[in-house]
Amino acid sequence: MEFSQEIIDNVIVLHLKGDLIGESDGFQVVDAVNDFVNKGKNKCLLDISGVRYINSSGFGVLITILTKLRNKDGELVLMKPSESVQRLLIMTKLNAIFSVVEDVQEGLSKLNSI
Fold it and tell me: Structure pTM?
C-alpha cells in the first residue's frame, strides 16, 4: 500500500492506494496521524478511493485512527470508498461508526463543522 498526505484547513488529508491489510503500511498511516495529533490537530480526512481491499487488520488501523482522534475531541471521515470496501463497511456494520463522504470539499465541510 502507498499513501501520501497533505494539510488543508488544519485537516490532515491522507490518500491511500492499494490494499489496507495492516502490517507495516498500516502502522505508517497511524504514525502519520500520531505526528499530526502531537501537533495539536485532531481532524483527518482519509481518502480510500484507491483502496481495493481491507481485511480485519486494516479495519483495525481505521478504528485505531478514529479512536486516537476522538480521544482528542476530533474526528475521522472516510472519503469515497470503492464499491467492495463500501460493502465490507456495511457487512461489518462499521458504516454506523464512520462518516463517509464523496469528495474533499464535502469532507472538509463536515470536519470543519465539528
Answer: 0.93
Supply 14's cell numbers: 491522507
What residue ranges define each of the domains in the chain, with the CATH number in brackets?
Answer: 2-106 (3.30.750.24)
Runs of H (alpha helix) within 1-114: 23-38, 56-71, 83-91, 104-112
Can you say how many angstroms the Cα of residue 33 is from the centroid of all Cα atoms in its chain? Answer: 9
Residue 51 makes CB contacts below 8 A (sequence gap 6+) with 1, 16, 17, 18, 19, 20, 81, 82, 85
Helix (H, G, I), strand (E, B) or coil at 90: helix
β-strands 11-20, 2-8 pairing = antiparallel
3-state class (DSSP) for residue 83: helix
The per-residue pLDDT for range 86-103, each reduced to its tens digit, is 999 999 999 999 999 999
